[in-house]
Amino acid sequence: MQQQITYYTVLLQKENYKSFYLAFLRVAICCWLLKELAINWSSLDVLYGQSGFVVAKNNFINRLPGDDFAFVKSHYTLFITAYIIVLFANLLGIGRNFSALLLFIILYLLQKMNMSIVNGGDAFARIILFYLIFADSYQFLILFKEKKKDHVLQKILNLISNLAALSIMLHLCMAYFSAGIAKLIDPVWLQGEGTYYAMSIERFTGTPFNKYLVQYKWIDYFFNYATILFELVFPILIWKKKCRKSLLIAGILFHAFIYIFLMIYGFEVVFILTYGLFLPNHQWINIERKVNAFLKGNKNGLEENIQISSS
Questions:
Q1: Which residues form the domain of 101?
Q2: Average of per-residue pLDDT across 166-193
Q3: Which of 68, 162, 165, 175 might form a disulfide with 12, Cβ 3.0–4.6 angstroms?
């Protein structure tokens, strides 16, 4: 047992096996959070300010100076301003892990200020940000190149980064498996009517086709039991290389279906964003090189056209 622990510790110290996708995930989550903020921009005073009507829950934030969130509500613009600054800093890799820590703290505060609008996507994004505090996600997609680190420090960072990536992957698997178990003990899902009721509710009527789909029992049964099967099988078979791509494609289709037909948006996007961690680092680096070469080729072609036009 001790030999196995030593072996895997040395292996995880060797290199950051998810260096590119950790960087991509950092940028993607920041962009997604900025998008969410832009959507809610016109309602910020209602959501976080003194115009809000949500009763504050008993947590440490409402123990700040003032009664019933009065202090926080009257200064919510400071939180939003700090949030935007730190979001861009983390997106560009400025401040490195310190920016990641600040972003996690500010996002946690904002979510606690109004838990009524926090969905599964928001919660999972916060969890991802927590793990990214410890990860070296700054080898790619940064504004300023970082200096070469000491060999010993780099080994420690590799170990922590790999553990952070593994933690995100395990958290995703736990989310799927717990959801699958919950459905197994729910009579509605056991009887094959889970998706029927979900697609029949007006709130989740994403398309005009929903009312036609629910008329066919075999479609209800198929999606109902396929959902349970996927959520139970994914956490087990995703670690097998032969099954990985098929499961990832199935997962994308699964979340795309929920996104389109049930109008559950953020939750699906954040879950799909984590899928890239299950693919090897060299694949993502090759894709990045091809994209850079393509963009560079277009730039050179544009410059040649300009020169020809000017002559």
A1: 11-168
A2: 96
A3: 162
